[in-house]
User: Fold this.
Amino acid sequence: MTKTSTPNLTNPIHLLAFGFGSGLAPVAPGTFGTLAAVPFYLLMARLPLEVYLAVLAVVILAGIWICGRTSRDLGVHDHPGIVWDEFAGFFVTMIAAPPGWFWLVAGFGLFRLFDILKPWPIGWLDRRVKGGLGIMLDDLLAGSFAWGVLQLGALLFGG
Assistant:
């Protein structure tokens, strides 16, 4: 494949990496990618926790390869349109989240906040770890931070 910064959405790997096209949004592709993850989360939320975690593990492991491969194909490390990592990070945020729209919106907002601000060590790792793992790692950590805050909120406010 010739390296180009434009994805080929007929390529299933690029299609997944670009969140079924959501990463092509002209502004805030990460936010649009996270929005595109919501319907998938709503399907996954019905699963028993063990199955949810198994699906998440597949999403993460596949994502390291999908993001790395797409990044190499495009010749751009962590192209802004690659949003599979947002899917994975949002799914981490929503592990065992209380049911209801409030918690869904709270999880979405918290994940976007941590993904955008990249507090230490998220930003530090984002600058140092390359390849598919690097693309995924900052979002997985942002999702973990957001998960912690969401779970604390559920504990304190009865989710």
Summary: DSSP finds seven helices and no strands in the chain. The chain has one domain: 12-157.
